[in-house]
Amino acid sequence: DAGITQSPRHKVTETGTPVTLRCHQTENHRYMYWYRQDPGHGLRLIHYSYGVKDTDKGEVSDGYSVSRSKTEDFLLTLESATSSQTSVYFCAISEALGGPYEQYFGPGTRLTVT
Amino acid sequence: DQQVKQNSPSLSVQEGRISILNCDYTNSMFDYFLWYKKYPAEGPTFLISISSIKDKNEDGRFTVFLNKSAKHLSLHIVPSQPGDSAVYFCAASEDDYKLSFGAGTTVTVRA
């Protein structure tokens, strides 16, 4: 299994508070991704990174920011959490660049915003 | 608008029989397709993939078929086993690094 960890695994927070989720990899893969999984929507890309300090938006990036200061760590921040951001968040990694295109996922973080 | 669609939210199949999962896509630029399997409280795991230059790829009990003209792919699991009960996601890519996912199909294998 790819070495990907996510922390915390579960979090309950209140509306309006900032929240940071961490993804850590030991595979030295170039690409890292944050997804959210919601019923009826599958996995939707929030942000991704193609190198240290290089990030770009995905399809559902509003209300989220990311940072990557080291190859192994990719942080997702909810600047002011809302109930619509209650979801399961997955981090993924990929070497990409000419293939293979497979992404490998972490175990997920279940976030509840009350 | 979702570019990858899995129109069957669930599928129930008897152990030992074939499971057929379907996936349709709208973006003709997609050139690589993948299937992921997900158990509750775990992350998705890569199952099998196919390039657009092929129409079939097989790996043990799992076979993926691609029909480019119909923009349709399917995953066949033969024979189905209890451990195959999971959510299956179809995904597609038009570049080296981003995937678009379908909404998933929950497979239940009955004893």
Terminal Cα span of chain B: 38 Å
- The sequence of SSEs of chain B as H and E is EEEEEEEEEEE
Helix content of chain B: under 10%
The count of DSSP E runs of length 2 or more, i.e. the number of strands of chain B, is 11
Main structural class of chain B = mainly beta
Our estimate of the beta-strand percent of chain A is over 45%
What characteristic shape of chain B results from the CA principal axes? globular
Largest beta sheet of chain B, briefly?
6 strands, mixed
- CA radius of gyration of chain B: 13 Å
Could you explain the architecture of this structure?
The complex is a heterodimer of chains A (114) and B (111). Chain A starts with a strand and ends with a strand. By secondary structure, chain A is mostly beta strands. The mean pLDDT of chain A is 93. Chain A is 0% helix and 57% strand. In chain A, β4 and β5 form a beta hairpin. Chain B is globular and about 40 Å long. In chain B, strands 2, 4, 5, 9, 10 and 11 form a 6-stranded mixed sheet that branches. In chain B, strands 1-3-8-7-6 form a 5-stranded antiparallel sheet, with no helix packed on it. Chain B has strands at 4-5, 10-14, 19-25, 32-38, 45-51, 56-59, 62-67, 72-77, 86-93, 100-101, 105-110. Chain B is mainly β and 111 residues long. At the A-B interface, β5, β9 and β10 of A face β4, β5 and β9 of B.
List the helices and strands and how they pair.
The complex is a heterodimer of chains A (114) and B (111).
Chain A: E1 4-7, E2 10-13, E3 19-25, E4 31-38, E5 42-51, E6 54-57, E7 64-70, E8 73-78, E9 87-94, E10 104-105, E11 109-113
Parallel strand pairs in A: 2-11
Antiparallel strand pairs in A: 1-3, 3-8, 4-5, 4-9, 5-6, 7-8, 9-10, 9-11
Chain B: E1 4-5, E2 10-14, E3 19-25, E4 32-38, E5 45-51, E6 56-59, E7 62-67, E8 72-77, E9 86-93, E10 100-101, E11 105-110
Parallel strand pairs in B: 2-11
Antiparallel strand pairs in B: 1-3, 3-8, 4-5, 4-9, 6-7, 7-8, 9-10, 9-11
